[in-house]
Amino acid sequence: MANTQFADMLGYSVEEVHQLHIWDWDTQLNQEQYLGLTEDVSSVGLNFETQHRCRDGRIIDVEVSNNGGVYGGKKLILGICRDVTDRKKAESEKSALIDKLEKALAEIKTLQGFIPICASCKKIRSEKGYWEQIEQYIQDRSDAQFSHSLCPKCAKELYPDMDITSDQ
After folding, report:
1. Which domain of life is it from (predicted)?
2. What is the CA radius of gyration of the chain?
3. Cα–Cα dist 69/41, whole Å
4. What is the pLDDT of residue 92?
5. Burial letters for 34-49: b for 16+ Cβ neighbours within 10 Å, e otherwise?
6. Which of 43, 97, 47, 49 lies closest to 71 in space, CA to CA?
7. How many other CB atoms sit within 10 Å of the CB of residue 26?
8. Which domains are delineated in the chain?
């Protein structure tokens, strides 16, 4: 037996679903595998994820919950199938985004700790003991780039006859 919601999920009528077997729409279980699974279903239940082929050929991800019982001397199985295609897609996108963020985080370079700098010339002593220009030191250890310009004080001292400190 199948209800209207299940038939609609697969794109069939209820009557058409009744003419099919589970292995006709399940893409991961053949007849033998499915019959083996049903032997294990008890009142405790069996839950798993699989994929179903819809009438139009689409494949959807499905979460199946089965519970078994005896009714009128016959073993019966109640199965509930839920389309989890959107959830699986969201999980996949989330996982890809986390991977992308972790990769970006691994590429982030930061300067931290004490950096020995000359009080006069402003060169920085590297880990190997060499004195480097501050620009080179920072560029080698980060993704920062420098563009050189002059502050107003230095511009006036270096070029007193030129007006290069205007805001234009």
Report:
1. Bacteria
2. 35
3. 8
4. 96
5. eeebeeebeeeebeee
6. 43
7. 19
8. 4-86 (3.30.450.20), 109-168 (no CATH)
